[in-house]
Design a protein that fits this description.
This protein is an alpha+beta fold. The chain is about 40% helix and about 25% strand. The longest helix is centred in the last third of the chain and has 17 residues. The two termini are about 15 Å apart.
Length: about 100
């Protein structure tokens, strides 16, 4: 399993606000992610499991991956439910 940013997702990373604006295309609702949410969304792209996502974002929070894995897992589930992240079984099936 791998997590990917959906191919039909438009996004704009605003460096001045340190926020990402996301919208499923063509007419999805716009979501704004900042701080920890932004870090998790960025860190999830291409990760092969929840532990890898937690390892990628743990330095952002100055904690260990084990300390945040449950919270990361919960937020990843929300991203998937909102069509802001995809979970694919095999990269050959992606896109």
């Amino acid at each position: 399993m791998t997590y990917l940013h959906p191919s039909r997702l438009g996004y704009y990373d605003d460096p001045t606000e340190q926020a990402i604006y996301l919208a499923p295309l063509p007419d999805g609702e716009i979501s704004r992610l900042e701080g920890p949410a932004r870090a998790i969304w960025i860190g999830a792209d291409g990760a092969e499991n929840m532990a890898e996502v937690a390892q990628r974002v743990a330095p952002y929070f100055n904690v260990t991956a084990d300390q945040i894995e449950a919270d990361v897992s919960e937020f990843i589930s929300q991203l998937i439910a909102g069509a802001l992240l995809e979970e694919v079984m095999d990269l050959k099936d992606a896109r």
